[in-house]
Design a protein that fits this description.
The complex is a heterotrimer of chains A (about 100), B (about 325) and C (about 110). Chain A is an all-alpha fold. Chain A has one domain. With about 325 residues, chain B is mainly α. Chain B is about 70% helix and about 0% strand. Chain B contains eleven helices and two strands. With about 110 residues, chain C is mainly α. Chain C has one domain: Helix Hairpins (Orthogonal Bundle), CATH 1.10.287. Classes of the chains: A mainly alpha (about 100), B mainly alpha (about 325), C mainly alpha (about 110). Chains in contact: A-B, B-C. Chains B and C meet through helix 1, helix 2, helix 3, helix 4 and helix 5 of B and helix 1, helix 2 and helix 3 of C.
């Protein structure tokens, strides 16, 4: 059972890391702010989500798991809202303002 | 070579790269963004050094609060006439050589550790049980080196007084010049309505858990300050003028309670800042709660800056 | 080489970077930033002291850790004060630098009033 959980953790965290890497490459390579935001919000949330999902079986009891999930939710919330705000600023001032 | 040492090496390379980029960056904005990222990476380095309390403080203060202050300053300095005059090449070479010598001296000191490494850790652990605390760092902060902690809070208040006293005479006692982005129905307003309840719970949790595990008054206070600033920036509550009595009371209440308990210790426990035996834990928790409030308000006001306009009647 | 030594060397290098930035950069805000970098390098060196003295079942000596926490707070207080000074300088002179080499600068008239 433990082995199965460990394999699950390793594969989920690796998949998450891959998404984080892809998101970072997107952030560095995409041409303008809006596409860069797209790379960040979509891929980072999925990446972090997979990392958290993978860590859940290793968590320190139900409270530890709850903390992990709430970290993910808080990052989702702040990530989505910051992306909105940056996009709003870009729309107002133009991509180079 | 284990995975962890590869991770450490990668972390150090990143830290050095981003640290150098904050110095070398042409734009102040890029330098500040680099500094925030650097602060967060540095807190991971602290976790790797088994100093989780320091990691929390570094993430909250080094990355978060300092970053916010500097971003605000960069935004205001955009209107300034900057100077393109970089230091001349010989001066830069000389500075580089000097810096390299200092860094090399430190590196030599680190590479040649003393035979017997001095440590107070066993003494800390021996006496920690008497204080009722489980977190040795909190034990050092509130029991063995309580004077340092008290004076650190006084330094915060002094810095706040310094910042306030930079206001021109005609707006003394007025409203800090925090930039407010008040637009009804904006996403920022939504965040400022949604996040503070969660943030306040997190702050109370951090303050409470600080006695046993990593966390404490400072980390909790920083989260409180962030929530307050968020609500003010979104325009949901007005920025208070610094002459308000409640504001001034909140700023000093933590250090005053700390000092009062410390003075009471002179009578009840025969030493300044000593706790009567058996009452250490509840007294420390009381001090931590008051300090969390004071730190939250003081940090928020430090970030808001000196007063810039007077109260409109 | 242990992880602690590695981070210690990193701290030493950061002190070097910070010092270089502090000396060569003309803008006060960048100097403040460099000073913070320098400070964090010194803190890291302290972290190594703490990690080396690990004993009594702890990951590190709590005394240097508590000192670093205090130091981070004091560094923040100093940074806040310094930034307020820079912004006041901007308010007074319209400049963000402390260049002493142009006494005939355009803003000296306001500075004297």
């Amino acid at each position: 059972m433990n082995l199965v959980l460990d394999i699950f953790t390793v594969s989920a965290v690796s998949a998450g890391a891959l998404f984080l890497l892809a998101g970072t490459v997107g952030l560095l390579r995409f041409p303008d702010p809006l596409t860069r935001l797209h790379a960040l919000t979509k891929v980072d949330n999925l990446g972090l989500g997979l990392v958290v999902l993978g860590l859940l079986p290793q968590a320190d009891g139900p409270f530890g798991a709850l903390k992990l999930v709430s970290i993910w939710l808080l990052v989702q919330l702040s990530g989505a809202i910051v992306a909105q705000l940056i996009a709003g600023a870009v729309r107002q001032r133009g991509p180079h303002g | 070579m284990t995975i962890l040492s590869v991770f450490d090496i990668g972390l150090v390379v990143l830290l050095l790269g981003i640290g150098a980029s904050t110095i070398a960056a042409r734009e102040a904005f890029a330098a500040v963004i680099g500094f925030v990222v650097y602060g967060l990476l540095l807190s991971i380095a602290w976790v790797r050094l088994s100093a989780v309390d320091v990691a929390l403080t570094e993430a909250a203060i080094g990355g978060g609060m300092t970053g916010m202050l500097m971003l605000g300053a960069v935004a205001r300095l955009r209107v300034a006439k900057g100077s393109d005059t970089r230091a001349s090449l010989p001066a830069r070479v000389a500075a580089g050589v000097l810096s390299a010598i200092v860094a090399a001296g430190l590196a030599i000191a680190i590479l040649s550790p003393p035979e017997a490494i001095p440590t107070l850790a066993p003494m800390v652990m021996e006496n920690l049980a008497q204080s009722g605390l489980g977190n040795p760092v909190a034990g050092v902060l509130f029991v063995y080196r309580a004077l340092d902690t008290l004076l650190e809070k006084v330094v915060l208040i002094l810095a706040l007084l310094g910042v306030w006293s930079l206001a021109p005479d005609n707006v003394w006692g007025g409203i800090p010049g925090l930039r407010v982005y008040a637009r009804p129905d904006s996403t920022l307003t939504f965040l400022a309505q949604l996040l503070p309840p969660v943030g306040i719970v997190v702050a109370i949790y951090m303050c409470w858990v600080g006695a046993k595990e990593p966390g404490g008054a400072f980390q909790g206070g920083t989260v409180l300050a962030a929530m307050w600033l968020l609500v003010m920036i979104a325009g949901l509550t007005s920025v208070p003028s610094i002459s308000q009595t409640w504001l001034r009371v909140l700023v000093v209440v933590g250090p005053v309670i700390f000092l009062a308990i410390g003075l009471a210790g002179m009578v009840l426990a025969n030493a300044f800042l000593a706790y009567p035996s058996g009452y250490a834990k509840p007294l420390i928790v009381a001090v931590e709660v008051a300090l969390t409030l004071s730190i939250g308000v003081a940090l928020g006001l430090l970030a808001a800056g000196p007063p810039e306009r007077v109260q409109q009647q | 080489m242990t992880a602690a030594t590695l981070f210690g060397l990193c701290g030493a290098a950061l002190v070097g970077f910070g010092l270089y930035g502090l000396v060569t950069n003309p803008e006060p805000l960048r100097k403040i930033l460099a000073f913070n970098l320098l400070g964090s390098g010194v803190f890291l060196v302290f972290g190594v002291v703490s990690r080396r003295a690990a004993a009594s079942g702890l990951g590190g000596d709590p005394v240097p850790q508590a000192m670093v926490i205090t130091a981070i707070v004091v560094a923040f207080a100093a940074t806040a004060m310094a930034i307020a000074l820079v912004l006041r300088l901007l308010q007074e002179t319209g400049r963000s630098t402390l260049s002493a080499d142009n006494p005939g600068g355009t803003d000296t008239d306001r500075g004297n009033s």
